[in-house]
Amino acid sequence: xxxxxxLATLTAAVAQGxxxxxxxxxxxxxxxxxxxxxxxxxxxxxxxxxxxxxLVNTNSLFLAVVAGAVCxxxxxxxxxxxxxxxxxxxxxxxLALNMFAGGLSGYLGKDYNGxxxxxxxxxxxxxxxxxxxxxxxxxxxxxxxxxxSYGLVIGLTYLIFHTxxxxxxxxxxxxxxxxxxxxxxxxRTRYIYVVMGGMLAGIGGSFLILSTVxxxxxxxxxxxxxxxxxxxxxxxxxxxxxxxxxxxxGGVEALGYQLQAVSVNVSPVLLKMLPYLATILxxxxxxxxxxxxxxxxxxxxxxxxxxEDN
Amino acid sequence: MRKRRIGxxxxxxVALSMLLWGCKEKAPEDTQGQTQEAAQKxxxxxxxxxxxxxxxxxxxxxxxxxxxxxxxxxxxxxNARLYLEENCENIQTFKVENIAGGADCERVMREYINDGCExxxxxxxxxMDYMLALADEFPDIAFINGSGYETKxxxxxxxxxxxxxxxxxxxxxxEMTQVDKIxxxxxxxxxxxxxxxxxxxxxxxxxxxxxxxxxxWSNSFNDPTTDALxxxxxxxxxxxxxxxxxxxxxxxxxxxxxxxxxxxxxxxMREFAPSQQLTANCWTWGPWMxxxxxxxxxxxxxxxxxxxxxxxxxxxxxxxxxxxxxxVIDMVEEQRQKFIDGDEVFKGPIYDxxxxxxxxxxxxxxxxxxxxxxxxxxxxxxNWADKPTD
Lengths: 310, 390
Fold this sequence. Notes:
The complex is a heterodimer. Chain A is mostly helical.
């Protein structure tokens, strides 16, 4: 019984954590390039809404995911234009984007309320890997987007820390003037990663609608964009750590109901608070353990770069 | 090139002048219309100073806490609104969706009152406090709210003896389960959902004393992501049948996907889950609400706590799924007839799941008393962490 419960909780942790992970991975790229995009919640909503509309009209899961990525990518492009080219204050701009996208997704989705999704992302077994006891059941019997997130964690870790491209990306976020003097087009680089970050947030939103809850409800993300933002900081801008944090947050959510179902009476109100408490604790711990730099993130984040000045 | 530009300027100039001309032409008409309307209004007010003309159009304002199509509970009150539109004469209804319980709902209700609504229908437990305050401020307006605990002279609560319907579906569940473990997804542990859960459990116990009912509280009325998680949890725990007491369609969709039987809530949920629904507890308020409109029209409206029941047509079951055998349907129908004839759900002796005697032999628990339950029947695994001790 306990074994079944643990297995179910861990499997649910991966499923609940994946939309958070996808969105956080995108934001890691965005912030590493020196731009803070607070509009994750809005971009996830936009991704979810556009995915659902395309799914209902075309019945194609692939097109639905693409639509989610493209729409949120476009929103991120707006954020890029305002924060990189127009040099608007990034926090204000990100908050504005959130409200705008929240409203827009509600407006566009209003004719799609209360319609069931024609299909959902199927889970499938990865041959061999799925036969590993426990691990296989938890990690390798999931849907395609979960596998995509595994690939992204490995790919982004390699890209950011072990390639020239990653070095340039980090340079734009840490010391854009130096990057500029090395011949890197700082603002173009930032544009690319802001848009890619937006696309991943959109796919995170798609995941919610194509797997977790297969019908559109206004504001269905329920604050998950903000949790993803907390994960980025918690994970110190590292993809692998973001994966762990996303699964912990997803797992806490799932564990609450598993415990309830076997009559271990933990107050549900307490459980709902845990992800946020964890964020505060991790931030405090990281800041204390890392006195000189703290948990501030990339040096030049939120600072617009003006080539003429350098 | 140049010619084309001149052409464009000319077109623009013509368009602009037409626009201005149009405005000029239209403007007096508009003001005329307005004054006419105002005059008409003044005339109306003069002719019926007391507003007691029995043939007057009664305006009824509905407020919904969610988008109706995504919320089964809201759908039941929307059905009542449509019923009024169809069956009452001289009535005009309005609706506003997606208004959370808070200052916003008060604002919307005030606007309705300013616009001449004589009856305000709140459809959510969350509106209770705001409607109580407004009822004091506007004693001439009739307020009614779907669920709640307090009434005033001009504030009614509509709710139903929902345990009757739950009992019937409980019998069905007790017969249909193979593993004697039935899941029950519900919202927040306050007396009304508890009463429904116990009604369901009583129905299960009446046909299958071995079966247990595992309750899971989502702690919200409509949060699809959490609802889906609850359903998945119950299925992972080995339940082979789930009864829903939540407003989203998420549980039904999860059950359909995983091939688990379920019993819907509020409305027929087959739209979301065509094959797995055994039946659904459906609630109908329309005919009762029509009576309230007539009471407002005659000036006899009196606020009270209205518990409708199976005899009012407020409680019914949706069409049974193909997998339900005929003998089970007959059994449920037989019990339904007993309820119509006055049978009660909670008949003593009833012990709770801690072994305490709650209803002594020969007594029944009904009406207001049944709406104070904070304990569970013996076959319920209640999982309520913050259960008050008594």
